Amino acid sequence: MLSVQEALDLASSSCGTMDITTCGFTPWGPESCPSLEQVMASRPAASSTAALAEAEAEAARDADPEDEERLRRQRRKVSNRLSAQRSRARKQQRLEELREAAARLRAEKQQLEARLQALARHDLAVRCQNARLGAEASALARRFREARRLLALRRLAFAALQPRPGVAPAPAPPAPLLGLASLMT
C-alpha cells in the first residue's frame, strides 16, 4: 500500500494536475493515457520515508502559498480516499461477520427445530402411555372394589351359616359363593 507522499508523487508525476487524477476521472482517452512503465519511470527514486519527508519539507519551503494550498488539498484528498478505503474494508468485514453469524444461527435454528419435533413425539408417546396406564388403573380399582364387595358378602354368608348358641339353625340349602374365583383371573 502506498504512503500518502508516494501517492501524491505518483499522481503529480503521472499527469501534472492532481485534481483530476485524485477524483477518479480521467479526461483523456486510452491512447493518451500514460502507461504503467511511464508512471513508474517518472516516480522519484527516493524510497525511504526520511528522504520523502526531506523532499516534502524542501518543496514546502520553496513553494509559494498557492502551491502549499494545492499540496494541502491533495494530501487531504489522498487521506480522505485512504480513509474511505479503510471504511469500506471495515464495512465489508462486518458484512462477512454478519453473514457468518446468520448462517450459524440458521443451522442452530434447524437443530433446535429437529430437537423440538423429537421432544413433541416423545411427549405424545408419554401422554398415550399415561392415558393407557390411567385406564388400566381405573379398571383395576373397579375390580378391587368388586372383590371387596364379594368378600364382604362371603363373610356375611359365612357368619349366617355359623350356629349361634341357643338358636337352632334353620335348615336351608347353602348359598353358592360365585364370582370370587372369576375376579381372581
Q: Span from first to last CA?
A: 94 Å
Structural class: mainly alpha
Unreliable segments of 5+ consecutive residues: 14-23
Discrete helix count: 6
- Major sheet attributes: none
Number of beta strands: 0
> Percent of residues in beta strands?
under 5%
Helix percent band: over 70%
Radius of gyration: 52 Å
Order of secondary-structure elements: HHHHHH
What is the overall pLDDT average?
Answer: 77
Explained architecture:
The chain has a domain of 102 residues. The chain is built from 6 helices and no strands. The longest helix has 97 residues. It is rod-shaped, with a radius of gyration of 52 Å. About 5% of the residues have low confidence. It is found in: Nucleus. It comes from Zea mays.
Question: Which short descriptors sum up this protein?
Answer:
single chain; 185 residues; mainly alpha; 6 helices
Describe what is shown at a glance.
The chain is an all-alpha fold and 185 residues long. Helix content is 75%, strand content 0%.
